[in-house]
Design goal:
With 161 residues, the chain is α+β, with helices and mostly antiparallel strands. It has one domain (4-160): Alpha-Beta Plaits (2-Layer Sandwich). Helices cover 37% and strands 27% of the residues. The protein has 6 helices and 6 strands. The chain has a 6-stranded antiparallel sheet, with helices on both faces. The longest helix has 15 residues, at 15-29.
């Protein structure tokens, strides 16, 4: 059974640059959503998409927010199995004037959560990987879940086994 990865992609910069990026992404997607194929074209096969995007699925459940006086643009979307790291890298290199942060996490939140952080500094266009301080806390943040409630659920599940 395939599982989901939640991706939170945040850009910071000048409002006109962020609006232009949002418009380019929307135009390539044909909607307000984000389309991985609009950023890196790929064929129909899962293998080709996996090779080009880092995941075999198109973005799903997209949420787009432009806030704080239009100085922060945030995309939240899900992909199957893996985060689309090549897409993140392309967006960072295509937008060197913006600061980009990506936080991603696997849907199975636990003590050994699969998650990560990518960041680019304004002016660099290069995306670097950062190690999360606490994988469990990061996964809860990305999935918008309460860490205390998740810990309690883990304890209950452990006791039932």
């Amino acid at each position: 059974m395939k599982s989901y990865i939640r991706n939170k992609m945040t850009f910071r910069g000048e409002s006109e640059d962020l609006r232009a990026l949002r418009d380019r992404i929307a135009e390539s997607a044909g909607s307000e959503a984000i389309s991985l194929a609009g950023i890196i074209p790929a064929g129909e096969s899962e293998e080709e998409r996996k090779e080009l995007w880092g995941t075999e699925s198109e973005a799903e459940e997209t949420d787009v927010i432009l806030y704080r006086n239009d100085t922060i643009l945030e995309y939240t979307f899900d992909t199957l199995s893996d985060p689309p790291v090549p897409v993140f890298r392309k967006l960072a290199s295509d937008n060197p004037g913006l600061r980009m942060t990506v936080k991603w996490a696997h849907e199975d939140i636990g003590p050994d959560s699969r998650c990560g952080i990518f960041e680019s500094e304004e002016g660099s266009g290069e995306l670097t990987e950062a190690e999360p301080d606490d994988a469990f806390e990061l996964a809860c943040e990305v999935w918008d879940r309460d860490p205390d409630e998740e810990r309690m659920e883990l304890e209950i599940n452990f006791m039932e086994e």
